[in-house]
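Input sequence (303 aa), recorded before submission:
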Amino acid sequence: MKLWNHYHTPQTVDDAIRLLSQYAGQARIIAGGTDLLVEIRAEDHPPQEALIDITRIPTLTQITYQPDEIRVGAGVTHSQIVRSAQLLQSATCLVESCGVVGGPQVRNVGTIGGNVAHALPAGDATTSLVALNAQAEIIQNGQRQWVPILDMYRGPGQSLLDSTRDLLLGFRFEPASGRTATAFKRVMRPQGVALPVLGCAVWVKLSDDGLQIQDIRFSIAPIAPKPLRVSQLESALIGKSTEEDTIQYAGEFAQSCIQPRTSKYRATAEYRHELIAVLVRRTLALAIRRAKSGEIVPEGIGL
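Predicted structure, token format:
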């Protein structure tokens, strides 16, 4: 079965954009292909006119570190992220979320950009990028710009970008340091493709003495048609102590403001409602413990 007519491997962003323009909406961007190839195999259509492989563009396959900013190229694989000692310390939740994507073969080729470009609300890496308050760098309508990560989503499988004309370049976010830490946990169905029942990522900043929550961000998915920042929960926890009663309160409050639906592929609404409290408590407790101690030992990462 023929899936495409032409396959290109541009060496620069400008070359990739030129090719997209040349094919005038008849080409698709490909990196790992773990989503795209499944998609085009399932379509009862003629072969794609062209695929444009961005994995030979150096700037899209690199992670760069600065004291106040980390940048991750859209073509960086999940395995690259899992192996990064610096990301482990400064963006732990991203390492943990990428470490549970598929199996080793999928993580070796699947990219963080593909996780976002396909606009699936259950993406594990996306859940962490939301908690990290990341921005995405894109080229849209010929204009290069940064947009908030949540602006990349229009609905399930509906991206801000036109996959035949626009290009996702990468992401940037502030590294955790001092009394700031992150964590990610998920519960999944072990059968088949191990779909996440729920995933939770937390970014937390504590007071200098470690006794109070100064700022916090929660992302829980899949709950809604798009990735979700739980702003009500965040507001309720700012200024609270870091003691166990606050963690218990967080779980109860999360249940009161999040109403999951039943999914035939994941679990019933009732089960997921109970799971919200468990995930919020466990993820928040882990993030607080890391922010207090500064010790980072990743959890749940597949090797």
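Checked by second reader. The domain at 180-293 is CATH 3.30.390.50 (Enolase-like; domain 1).
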